[in-house]
Design goal:
The complex is a heterodimer of chains A (101) and B (149).
Chain A: E1 2-8, E2 11-20, H1 22-25, H2 28-39, E3 43-54, H3 56-71, E4 75-79, H4 83-91, E5 99-100
Parallel strand pairs in A: 2-3, 3-4, 4-5
Antiparallel strand pairs in A: 1-2
Helix pairs in contact in A: 2-3
Chain B: E1 7-14, H1 19-31, H2 38-59, E2 66-74, E3 78-85, H3 93-96, H4 112-119, E4 122-128, E5 132-140
Antiparallel strand pairs in B: 1-2, 2-3, 3-5, 4-5
Helix pairs in contact in B: 1-2, 2-4
The chains are: A alpha/beta (101), B alpha+beta (149).
The structure holds adenosine-5'-diphosphate and magnesium ion.
């Protein structure tokens, strides 16, 4: 799993590439937290266009990112979620908790 | 009375996290003989990932143990998938299956069993604390009209 960070105007864009399972996500949470703490964004966008597989490990990552953004009074948007990952989020009802575009 | 499986495979591998991807691909490969739709294949791969990850993370938290995954095909395009470990076990299975319940850290969501339940038709969990856990899932795949050409 690779994460590319781009930040401008207190907007942080994180682009995820690869398999977001427990193995692939090791270290991803820390990386996301470090990126948020460095940018202190008002808005975090997690772009999942490059995610080739996701299981419930991805749900934990999204929920932790959301909690961190709430501490900063900021918001989170999850974007470009491929079909398989989208069905995982839907099965867990995550659309009710998180803004998914 | 038990019906006989028309085909089956048993895989045994150590609980290295790199084997999550292996288990998904191996299951997908075996299931391809059932002519699954893309969605069915993805649902099965996701369920395998959840069950195998649970063994790696929860059953053997501080060691590497044995995972046995069995796939069986029954008449009527029925798939049975079992994932078995000899790890720590689950004291209260009903509680473990509650959405968002987790004994894992912040990298777990507690949604694994919920996803397996949602993507497969049937889920059963048998566990003896200190002895291990067997997760069995069943899914009937859509009958596909065979092309004559
Ligand atoms: N194979 C297993 N061995 C021991 N405990 C397990 C096993 N599978 C699941 N569990 C227990 O059930 C809980 C819920 O599992 P799950 O729904 O997959 O959520 P998560 O893995 O995110 O914690 C786990 O936190 C763990 O306590
Ligand atoms: Mg799990």
């Amino acid at each position: 799993m690779e994460i590319q960070a781009k930040s401008a105007d207190r907007n942080l864009l994180l682009e995820f590439c690869g398999e977001l399972d427990h193995h692939g996500a090791r270290g991803a949470l820390r990386e996301v937290e470090l990126a948020i703490d460095a940018a202190l964004p008002r808005m975090l966008v997690m772009d999942f266009a490059g995610v080739t597989f996701m299981d419930s490990s991805g749900i934990a990552l999204i929920l932790r990112a959301q909690q961190r953004m709430q501490l900063l009074d900021g918001s989170l948007q999850v974007r470009n979620v491929p079909g398989q990952a989208r069905r995982v989020l839907d099965a867990a009802g995550i659309g009710r908790l998180v803004n998914i575009k | 009375m038990k019906t006989k499986a028309s085909n089956e495979v048993t895989l045994e591998f150590p609980s290295h996290s790199s084997n999550e991807a292996f288990a998904r691909s191996a299951a997908a490969c075996f299931v391809s003989q059932m002519d699954p739709t893309l969605n069915e294949l993805e649902d099965i791969k996701t369920s395998v990932s959840e069950a195998v990850t649970n063994v790696i993370v929860h059953a053997y938290p501080d060691s590497i143990g044995k995972i046995v995954m069995k796939l069986r095909v029954y008449p009527g395009n029925m798939l049975e998938l079992t994932v078995k470990d000899q790890g720590r076990g689950i004291a209260d299975v009903d509680q473990a299956r509650v959405p968002m319940f987790t004994t894992g850290g912040e990298e777990r969501s507690g949604m694994g069993f919920t996803i397996m339940e949602s993507f497969m038709d049937q889920l059963s969990v048998r566990s003896v604390p200190g002895r291990g856990t067997t997760v069995t899932m069943k899914k009937k795949l859509m009958p596909r009209i065979k092309s004559t050409k």
